[in-house]
Structures are given as C-alpha cells and as structure tokens.
Design the sequence.
DNA sequence: ATTATTGATGTAAGCGCTTACAAATAGGGT
DNA sequence: ACCCTATTTGTAAGCGCTTACATCAATAAT
C-alpha cells in the first residue's frame, strides 16, 4: 500500500497465493479442475491484488478471444442500433464480447475493418449484406474466422445469412401502395452500389408494379445516401416534377423522415397530397407526423438469432445455416389514397 | 498455392523476404529505419502472403495498443452518436482506433467495461460524466491508463474533462421559457442518480426559477429513463395534473420527442396549450413537429477536442486539461407563450 | 592508410498467459 | 502391503511480436 506498483500479473498472484501460474490460470478458466481450498486462496490473492488478466496475452496463448466482431455500415442513425443491441445481449449471454466498427458504406473501409478485427483475434465476424469481394471471404477462410451475413436473407447466396427478404418485403409494401390507388410512384433509395439490401428494395417496388400491371420502368428513382438531409433534398426534387408522383416510397425510415420534414417545409400535405412510406420501423417511424407506414423488421429477433448462429459456428457446432426473418407491413397515417386526379 | 495454409506470421514474411523478423517489424512500424530496397522486398512478401500482423502479439510486445476505449451509457439513441463519431474520426486522424462499449447507465456494468477495456490494452479511456467511484480512478492510475471525462464540464472536479456546463445551459433555456411567460413549469428529467449531467440540468431549471422570482421547489419533477416511451408516459402523467403545467422542459430531446408523441395522442396542442423543450439538438429535434426549442450542443467539436486532448495525455504531452464547450439555445416552434389563464 | 562515425540489419530476450506433459499425492481394490 | 487409477499441482514450452544491443559494412574524417 502506498508504493506505486504497476499492474499485477499472473505471476504476482501465483506468488501471493503460493502456487504456480498454471494453477492460477486454472482457477480463472476452469475452476473445477482445482481443489476448493486452493481456489479460495488464489481468488483471495486475485482480489487483494486487484488483478485483471491481460487480454492480449490470453488471446495469444489460447488462440481464442471469445470476441465477435461486427462491421456495420454506419452508427450515425438508429437503423442498426436495435438489432446490434440484441446481438450483443445474446452474445454476452453466450459468453462472448462484441467489437463493433463502422465502414461508412465504404467497401475499402470495410475490408480494412475486417483485417483489423481479425488481427485483434475476433473468433467470428458479423457482416451486413452479401455484396462483397470474394477475396475477403478467402482471407477470412485462411484465418479460419467464420463469418455470418445479417440484415439480408438470400437462399441463392453461398454464405450463411440471418436476415429478411428485402425484395419481398418491399414488394409487399408496394402492393399496398398500389392497391391504395397510386400509379405515379417515386422511390428515394439508398445507394444501390454494392448494397444488396438497397438493390433488393428497389427491385421489390418494380416487381410489385409489374405484378399490378404498371410499367416498372416508369418508376422515378432517386438514389442518395441514407441521411435525413438527403431524403429531404430528394423529396424536394420529386415535388418539383410535373406531374408529381402521388406516392414516395423511401428506402428506409430515415429517408422517409427527411421527406416528411421537407414536405412540411414545402407545405405539401402528407398523406392528403402525397403518400410517403419507409422501411425498418425504427422508433422514428412512430414519432414523425404523420406516423410512417413502413415495413416492420423484427430487429431484436434477427440480432439474437444471428448471435446464436454465429457462436455455434465459432464453436464448430454449425456449418453456418441461413435463417429467414419474417417482416410485415405496418400501416400508419403516411399512406392514403392519392388525391383526386385533376 | 492450393495448400490450406494457416495465417502467415512475421517469421514467414521474414523468410520469404530473406531478412530477419526485426527488419520486417521495422518495415512495418518505422519504415525510415530500413533501406528502400529491403523495404520493397519485404513489402512484396507481405503483400503476396497476405500478411496481417497479430494485434495481441504486437500489444504485448510493444506495451502500446494505439487503441482508445470509450464507455458510453447507451447506444440505443442518437445522443452520443454524433459526438462519438467525431471523436472516432479525430482519433483515426491521430493514428488511434476506438473501442466502444455501453454501460446501460449501470455503474457496475461501467466498472466491468472499464476493466475489460484496460485488459484489452486501451492506451486511454473516454468516460461520460464525472460521477464515479474513486476506486475506479485508482484502478486506472495503477494501470497507468489516462482517462478523460466528456459530455460534462466541471471546473470543480479534479479530473480533466471536455464538455459543457449542463447547469448553465439548462438555466439559460429555462430563462427563455420563463420570459415567454411560463410560471407553472414541469420537468421530465433523466435519472439523476449517479448522473451529474441530469443533476446539472435539473439544477439549471431551479436556478433560473430562483433568479426570476419563482419558487424552485414548485418545480414538478419526474425522473425517468432516457427513452421515448418513458418521455411519453411522463408527459401523460403531467397532463393529468390540475392545474396543468404550461411548459414541460425535458432532460433531452429523446424525452421531448416522447412528450410530443403523447401530446399528439392526447390531442394536446403544442405549443398552443403546452410548451415543450428538449436538450442536445440531435437530428430528432428538427424532425418532430413542432420542431423542438432546445439547447444546441456542438457534439462534433466536443468529440474532436476530446480526442485531441486524450491522445495528448496518452502520449504524455498533456497532464489533462479541461475544456469548456459552449452551448446555445435554439428557438423553434415547440416553445411559445402560455395560453391565457382561465 | 587508419580510425571514428553513421546506418542497416541480425540476435535474442522477453511481454503475460495457456496447456501438454510430468510429477506427486491420495484412495481403492486385491 | 502392493499396484493401479484418478486427481491435483507444477514445469516449461511456446503464442507472434518489439526492441535493446551486437554486429557489420560503408562512408567520412584524420
């Protein structure tokens, strides 16, 4: 006490308890392989020295980190927050820690983050969406790090994934829009480049149009980043069109919130003059006014299931199955019949 | 080629390039200490083997991780998102990586996370708010990990901090509320237990009331978690009061958004019947309707400055200074004069 | 020509931990 | 009493990297 000591090591604990480092290690990692009395003595030493194991050393020696990495496109909005939280909670329950980093929707940055996470000893990786260089998967294979794709379900893809059918979900929503009577439909999509979810959603709208006898190529499409301001700006451009679309379907709730904000600014009544829809059903969807008609994604369920599947893969209990999460359309006030034709 | 190899190590690279491991290490870490020709040869080997340094080994040998840890109360809403993003960007610019984890506003969980981050070799830690056991600071000192407090500025506190005056900022906002004519003021605060920011904001309101000749103890106060639903619920309770408060000041924008949602549901007109204010000025504040009168916190500036100060501390260039970030009241439509007294 | 100086590279000692293996101890069956 | 097995603990070899120090060659200074 009083003396400036630096952090205690396993060795210090071993000495204090009068045992070998191996025994201390066992006390910490497999307590049942050590006799009760010894363990008590060791734990007491641990306690009184305020010992915390050095993670780097542990990873290095055990070649196992009980850490899962996740690379998400952005932390800037709530799109991934809820699902990730559930993912983390479940991971924690399974005895793992989560390391998150974001790629800003940049493939190069994502590659970088993947390398970083692998170098940090992640036992497994959660990736968002399928679109990705094959080289990356080879890299992961070489390092023997299992990976799981989330936020997208695609039975065609060879990689295991836990997610939902973006195309199908959006198609269903588009059908409601069309059956409300809309014919001039516009879409504000996220950037589809390298983003299979955004692509799927656009395709979903087109598919519904085709099914319902509308010309899919007549869809007015604006691609922009998933930001509120961008959604607002895109909506402004759509409203300047003649004739105006009567329904604006947005790639997600964030874009839709931006659209709503701009509508208010422009004095455009939603849904009386224009209907707006979102995707994801994050909290935002219920807060904005009018509340958003959108696609509800059970993020928590997805997060939990992804966590279970990925840990199973890490522990060699699964080869990597794909799980499809069901979405459903949620009807709120932002969608109504189109105004009477003039 | 073809053979299943496991991940290459420094040694493999050294052999491939025909040099010693030391030289490879130098190529990677201080390229100027190695002659051009050698470096080229080494880099080529690195490239062709697809070598990624093992982080754990590096940390262990160098006793330096170029990693900064941050423990934030929650990732569930956008309160910390923007500031943290700026923090990370600046950190990256300074050559550091950020590790984030969240404590769910639970001191015990925070302690746990701090230990984890330290064990993982974080060179420095960003903590939110001052309220914290002294024991934790001792632990950090023993492990020689510098820490910086953010989101709160308190010249009284002994710990360095980069943040804003919660009390002062809220006081200023409360003054606008009072000078708009409000006398029956209620507040929906976050849990003040162990949260100096929440405490400061409550105190700010009280202080303004006292200054303006109102009785501070007449403040109707509801404490609740920082969640939209909780804000809505609290607002509902306030509206059931007789007489009703004419202004509801919320501890942050999230609570205010909940209040607004409930107001709409109850058919209470904002601001005609009741005024509502927020705190933080996150994106949400501009999206809800009516848009929130709130306190603008320059989160990005705070994040950047915190990153610079903390890296300076880590590198021994600073003893840890405190920096005060200036906030300002933003007037939007959710605050107006109270209705004519009945 | 000789020595000092500088710069590039190699050698090898750890960093703190896990774990295969060896050793020691304690019962249990005969 | 003896041998065998099971249990607990110790010994020591790494894990992949950095870095102090040693070595060696090349250039500059005398």
Sequence:
């Amino acid at each position: 006490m009083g003396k400036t000591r630096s952090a205690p090591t396993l060795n210090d604990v071993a000495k204090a308890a009068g045992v070998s480092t191996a025994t201390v290690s066992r006390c910490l990692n497999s307590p049942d392989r050590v006799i009760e009395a010894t363990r008590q003595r060791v734990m007491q030493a641990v306690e009184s020295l305020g010992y915390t194991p050095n993670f780097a050393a542990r990873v290095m020696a055990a070649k196992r980190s009980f850490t899962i990495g996740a690379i998400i496109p952005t932390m800037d909005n709530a799109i991934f927050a809820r699902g990730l939280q559930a993912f983390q909670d479940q991971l924690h329950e399974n005895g793992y820690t989560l390391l998150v980093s974001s790629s800003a929707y940049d493939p190069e940055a994502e590659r970088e983050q993947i390398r970083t996470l692998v170098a940090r000893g992640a036992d497994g990786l959660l990736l968002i969406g399928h679109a990705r260089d094959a080289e990356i998967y080879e890299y992961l294979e070489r390092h023997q790090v299992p990976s799981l794709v989330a936020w997208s379900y695609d039975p065609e893809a060879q990689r295991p994934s836990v997610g939902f059918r973006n195309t199908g979900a959006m198609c269903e929503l588009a059908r409601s829009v069309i059956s409300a009577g809309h014919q001039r439909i516009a879409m504000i999509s996220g950037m589809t480049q390298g983003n299979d979810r955004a692509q799927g959603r656009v395709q979903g709208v087109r598919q519904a149009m085709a099914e319902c006898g509308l010309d899919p190529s007549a869809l007015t499409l604006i691609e922009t980043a998933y930001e509120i301001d961008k959604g607002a700006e895109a909506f402004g451009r759509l409203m300047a069109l003649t004739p105006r679309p009567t329904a604006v379907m947005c790639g997600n709730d964030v874009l839709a919130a931006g659209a709503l904000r701009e509508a208010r600014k422009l004095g455009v009544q939603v849904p009386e003059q224009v209907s707006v829809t979102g995707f994801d059903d994050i909290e935002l969807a219920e807060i904005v006014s009018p509340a958003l008609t959108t696609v509800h994604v059970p993020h928590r369920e997805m997060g939990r299931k992804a966590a279970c599947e990925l840990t199973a893969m890490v522990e060699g209990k699964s080869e990597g199955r794909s799980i499809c999460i069901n979405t459903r359309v949620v009807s709120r006030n932002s969608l109504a019949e189109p105004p009477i034709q003039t």
